Amino acid sequence: MDRLFFVGVSAALFAAFAFSLNFIVPFIIGDYSNFDFALIRHVVSALVGLYILFSQNGVMRHLTLRNCLQAIWLAFIGYVGYFLTVTGAAVFAGPVIAPAFLGLVPIVLMVIGNQRQGSLPWRSLMMPLALVMVGLALVNGAAFTTEGLNSVRSLWIGVPLALAAVGLWCWFALANQAALATRPEMPSGVWSALILVGGGVLVLAFYPVGAAMDLFQLPTLGFSWSSAGNLYFWGASFALLATVGGVWTWNIASRSLPVALAAQLIVSETAFGVIGGLIVHARWPTPIEVGGVVVLIAGVVLSVRIFYDRQFASAKAVLAHE
């Protein structure tokens, strides 16, 4: 029990870090667009997914039409759609404000998840939830200062995109856990690979349409390594770390932890995202930002402790009964 619990917690924290890397994408790809980056990233991820599928024994029994369509749908919601909305939010609202809005994710997931699963009495969740909300308020307050607003192009576009990213990620987290729950025989690696391949298929299918709409800069700026080497390097790196690593570890967390706890752990994405935004802008955090991140981490630590104690008490009761 202890091992499964701590593996799930570690996986959720790594997934949060991996997903937070989306916030810095617009600031490292030069003149290429987010769509160019998404193309490279998801094609590389799909190749990794195909390798995983063909290297597994007995994988064909899992490759049903239903499973493939479900994986493509989840890839559309949680990876392609989420990536485009969150990077768009970072472009228009800045790399500090965008992750601050994503802090709404754990609150929404925590409420919905605990309502569905009844993991803990609501009174037990009040203190960690309060810490998270205070931390988010501090981070948001820092983001909307004059310094935080310097990088904003359009709040009218950036904020709706950030809220859309919140909706997509909550939808994906709940739908993905429900899909895994109905497939207990499905290995996490195979399910992750199907989602990765689904994301690559969607991006490739969209490329002709996007190219006709001039959303891709690759045809104009060039596909050669001398022109697009930076795009290829970062796209492949993020594919392996953020997409492959994020998908795999989040699926492990989804199987190991209740939704309410996983939601609390994903709040660390906000902390990682704010830190990444500060690095991009080459500045030190303000005292308010430091306080916000510390309070967020305190809420996460308290949540882990409460859920662990609850799980330990339940297991002890079962053993005593036996």
Largest sheet: none
Radius of gyration: 20 Å
- What is the number of independent domains? 1
Order of helices and strands: HHHHHHHHHHHHH
The dominant shape is globular
Q: Give the number of helices.
A: 13
- Distance from N terminus to C terminus (CA atoms, Å) equals 17 Å
How many beta strands in the DSSP annotation? Answer: 0
Helix fraction, binned, reads over 70%
Question: pLDDT under 50 segments (min length 5)?
Answer: 315-321
Percent of residues in beta strands: under 5%
Mean pLDDT: 79
Q: What would you call the structural class? A: mainly alpha
Keywords: Membrane, Transmembrane, Transmembrane helix
Organism: Rhizobium azibense
Protein name: EamA-like transporter family protein
InterPro entries: EmrE-like
Structural commentary:
- With 322 residues, the chain is mostly helical.
- The protein has one domain.
- The chain contains 13 helices and no strands.
- The protein is globular and about 55 Å long.
Per-chain topology:
Blueprint: H1 2-20, H2 34-55, H3 65-102, H4 104-117, H5 122-143, H6 146-149, H7 155-181, H8 188-212, H9 218-221, H10 225-256, H11 259-265, H12 268-280, H13 287-321
Helix pairs in contact: 1-10, 1-12, 2-3, 2-8, 2-10, 3-5, 3-7, 3-8, 3-12, 4-7, 4-11, 5-13, 8-10, 12-13
Salient structural properties:
322 residues, mainly alpha, 13 helices, globular, disordered C terminus
Summarize the structure.
The chain is mainly α.
